[in-house]
Specification:
There is one protein chain. It contains 13 helices and no strands. By secondary structure, it is an all-alpha fold. Helix 7 crosses helix 11. It starts with a helix and ends with a helix.
């Protein structure tokens, strides 16, 4: 690399760092000005509203299947409650993994930069969110669902991965997919008020986390050439193939007298599964395509396995 090219490269990197600091400073101000305290902003002592759902009906995994047609209205509500508990249990695990990534960001320093300070702020947010999830699970009376053994393997893999586009993409994979579903649920008057308020709190604060992860992923891609981007794209797509099925454990089907294997098979075969996965993933995947994180034959093949890709992207 010539001297001119080296100076240009250093200038570009300095600009990226300045942009990173500006983004982090803006998010720090927003975090200070707009936040909830779930201990007081959710009426924990108020009773559940009889007959209200726990999730929008069409987002429950068995919706549209023959098994769904055989369930009573009460069983449908009960299944929705267990699926909500499964999602919240997954959320607690996922936010713990995310916090581990953010601690590494702080460790890479400098510790006093706005970028590091925002990472610490986000860790605090995630801890409050996990506490909020746990309190709602406890209030339902349904025990939290433990994550399967493959989750522990994923934790180790994530710990070994260098901080970069794939790790920030994994953050978006968890946060944006859940965010999309929560935005629908929090606006649904048929859903329990406690659940709607929890989701309103989470959506508001996750918007900052999504903004942070999107900006970091974009910056990481900009400083890598096509060859160095490829493993990040493939790793993220492979992560999605494994993670998507973990959000709803098949054990939820026991709550309505259906065996886990039978319920899982029915849900996976249902056309509604693709509808739901596409609905929840569409904004995120469009962003991935925009910044170059949905390129390459291997990447596209893996994403298509998730059945979450919008039709126009799948056709490319």
């Amino acid at each position: 690399m010539s001297g001119v090219e080296q100076r240009r490269s250093r200038t570009t990197e300095a600009q990226r760092n300045e942009d990173r600091e500006r983004t982090a400073a803006r998010l720090l101000r927003s975090s200070a000005e707009k936040f909830y305290d779930p201990d007081v902003d959710i009426a924990w002592d108020a009773p559940w509203v009889e007959g209200k759902a726990w999730l929008p009906e069409e987002r429950i995994s068995l919706y549209g299947t023959k098994l769904w047609d055989q369930l009573t209205p009460e069983q449908r509500i009960e299944l929705g409650k267990h699926e909500l508990v499964s999602l919240l249990s997954f959320g607690i695990w996922a936010e713990a993994v995310l916090s581990g990534i953010l601690l590494r960001v702080v460790g890479h320093g400098p510790a006093t930069s706005a970028h590091s300070l925002y990472a610490l702020t986000e860790i605090a947010d995630e801890a409050r969110h996990s506490t909020m999830f746990a309190r709602l699970i406890e209030k339902t009376g349904v025990p939290a669902y433990r994550q399967p053994a493959v989750s522990r393997l994923l934790e180790r893999v994530v710990q070994l991965m260098p901080i970069g586009p794939a790790t920030y993409g994994g953050t978006l994979l968890i946060e944006e997919v859940l965010d999309r579903g929560q935005r629908q649920a929090m606006a649904d008057p048929g859903v329990q008020p406690h659940v709607r308020q929890l989701m309103r709190i989470h959506v508001l604060e996750e918007a900052r986390h999504i903004s942070y992860a999107r900006a970091e992923m974009r910056r990481g891609l900009e400083k890598r050439n096509a060859l160095r981007r490829a493993p990040h794209r493939a790793a993220l797509a492979g992560f999605a193939v494994v993670v998507y099925p973990l959000m709803i454990t098949p054990r939820v089907y026991r709550s309505v007298g259906i065996s886990p294997a039978r319920g899982f098979a029915a849900a996976m075969r249902s056309p509604q599964y693709r509808i739901n996965m596409t609905f929840m993933s569409e904004p995120m995947l469009r962003y991935f395509a925009e910044v170059g994180m949905y390129d390459g034959a291997v990447t596209k093949f893996l994403w298509k396995l998730t059945r979450s890709v919008p039709a126009e992207l799948a056709a490319k």
